[in-house]
């Protein structure tokens, strides 16, 4: 009997192998991740095919709006692992009704402890539904008095899970810690040094390819982004979201939620170029498109008297218009802007974009000048001061007013669509060049995924859902696409997305945005046949 079973197994294996590599490749590519891993143990030919499948670029994402946390996590995990994938990292966004601790434990329990995992509470999620494969957008409402809205909690549930494998890169998770005893201070220099050391050990370069950054709602990310922008080469992509509660796991990273000395203020996923790759591995690249939702209005002002109020994290200031001597109070400035705007200014979100020249250094390094623009929300104005949110403004800093409204938001959405169309056209042009210079069978560079961070306030300007999603979905249909609504959008760059930039402002950097949408697009260029 045993001999018959052995003979049958050998005959079955021979029969399956006889169908040809192409058909076998097609069959194995449809296996779930766990079954695919088991199939790799069958024989050498299967192992080679599955190794090839798992070496392809992959961004897999799934959304569940099941009111049960356990069921929602189960649905999302099953969906992202329904095809061959070898996750290097995972990001899970959950609704405020769910327990962050329980969600993190469930997700890490299913995905294991070998990869970096970040679990966070977002303002909303969008992506492909794990049950019906339809694209959905879910934005949650945060209400302080839950007792006044007993049914509200039932709507604030959901899980979005995104996992990825990026060929040619390694992923490392590094937290930004804050001292909780004595003078509270963000350990920004330590974060920069840790990223530099990690990147140097993997790639030989102190600058990573990209940094995906998440911060909590109490952390002022402006000084953090100042140093990150200063410390790393211009090619390093830095994107992310602020204002979230989060937990994380990594090989050497430990949550400090119960630590009496330190707390975790932010966490960075660093993507590092791996110089130890075997031959035949292509290149993963990141592309960023920013759609700002605010438009510049009015003249340029220069801050005169500035009073910081660290207690309520605000600044009081007076200013004067360029080429004028008279100092203006807050009410006068707002009246001037109102007269020039000619609309219902007080029903729109108003900001000032402050141009700053500061010295910056890491540790004991020699300091250098940096030039940046940062946005501060206008709180109000009276006959003494203009009151704005945040600190870090100095006398002599110049600023302009920016207005968030429906026109600015829709214009930015159209601009993002044009930029993504240009990206698609550039990829097509490069692929045409590869086919001409190499051979007609050369593999093409392609986009394989996109993660989007959108301001939770932009939705109120749209009369239809998923309008911010349309630019990517129309240009790259069928490609994995998901994201979150956030309280602050991080995207390193200059001021060009905000419109024409004067020569004076051409060197200004801007990393933290408001009423904006950030598209992080991933593409892959296969290795040339000779590699």
Automatic annotation (TrEMBL):
Residues 342-493 form the FIST C-domain domain. It comes from the Eukaryota. InterPro entries: F-box-like_dom_sf, F-box_dom, FIST_C. Pfam families: F-box (PF00646). This is FIST C-domain domain-containing protein.
């Amino acid at each position: 009997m045993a001999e018959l079973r052995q003979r049958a197994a050998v005959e079955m294996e021979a029969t399956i192998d006889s169908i040809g590599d192409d058909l076998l490749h097609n069959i194995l590519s449809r296996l779930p991740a766990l079954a695919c891993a088991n199939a790799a143990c069958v024989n050498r030919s299967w192992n080679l095919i599955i190794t090839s499948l798992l070496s392809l670029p992959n961004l897999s994402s799934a959304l569940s709006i099941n009111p049960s946390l356990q069921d929602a996590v189960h649905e999302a995990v099953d969906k992202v692992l329904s095809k061959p994938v070898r996750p290097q990292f995972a990001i899970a966004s959950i609704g405020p009704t769910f327990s962050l601790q329980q969600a993190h434990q469930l997700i890490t329990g299913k995905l294991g402890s070998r990869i970096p995992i970040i679990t966070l509470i977002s303002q909303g999620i969008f992506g492909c539904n794990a049950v019906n494969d339809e694209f959905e957008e879910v934005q949650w409402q945060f209400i302080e008095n839950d007792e006044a809205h007993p049914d509200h909690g039932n709507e604030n549930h959901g899980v979005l899970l995104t996992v990825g494998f990026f060929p040619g890169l390694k992923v490392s998770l590094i937290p930004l810690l804050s001292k909780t005893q004595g003078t509270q201070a963000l350990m920004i220099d330590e974060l920069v040094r840790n990223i530099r050391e990690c990147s140097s050990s993997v790639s030989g370069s102190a600058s990573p390819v990209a940094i995906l950054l998440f911060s909590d709602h109490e952390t002022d990310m402006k000084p953090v982004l100042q140093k990150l922008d200063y410390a790393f080469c211009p090619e390093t992509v830095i994107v992310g979201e602020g204002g979230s509660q989060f937990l994380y796991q990594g090989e050497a990273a430990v949550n400090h939620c119960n630590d009496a000395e330190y707390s975790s203020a932010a966490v960075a996923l660093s993507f590092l170029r791996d110089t130890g790759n075997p031959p035949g591995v292509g290149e993963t690249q990141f592309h960023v498109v920013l759609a700002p939702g605010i438009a510049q209005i009015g003249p340029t002002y220069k801050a005169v008297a500035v009073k910081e109020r660290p207690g309520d994290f605000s600044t009081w200031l007076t200013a004067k218009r360029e080429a004028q001597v008279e100092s203006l109070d807050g009410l006068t400035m707002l009246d001037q802007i109102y007269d020039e705007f000619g609309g219902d200014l007080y029903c729109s979100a108003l900001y000032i974009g402050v141009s700053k020249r500061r010295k910056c250094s890491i540790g004991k390094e020699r300091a250098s000048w940096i030039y940046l623009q940062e946005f501060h929300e206008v709180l109000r104005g009276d006959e003494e001061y203009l009151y704005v949110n945040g600190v870090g403004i100095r006398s002599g800093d110049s600023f302009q007013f920016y207005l968030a409204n429906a026109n600015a938001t829709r214009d930015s959405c159209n601009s993002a669509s044009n930029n993504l169309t240009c990206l698609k056209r550039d990829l097509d042009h490069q692929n045409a060049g590869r086919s001409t210079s190499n051979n007609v069978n050369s593999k093409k560079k392609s986009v394989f995924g996109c993660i989007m961070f959108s301001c939770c306030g932009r939705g109120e300007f749209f009369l239809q859902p998923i309008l911010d999603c349309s630019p990517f979905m129309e240009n790259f249909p069928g490609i994995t696409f998901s994201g979150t609504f956030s309280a602050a959008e991080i995207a390193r760059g200059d001021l060009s997305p905000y419109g024409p930039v004067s020569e004076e402002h051409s060197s200004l950097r801007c990393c933290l945005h408001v009423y904006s949408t950030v598209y992080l697009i991933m593409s892959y260029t296969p290795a040339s046949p000779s590699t």
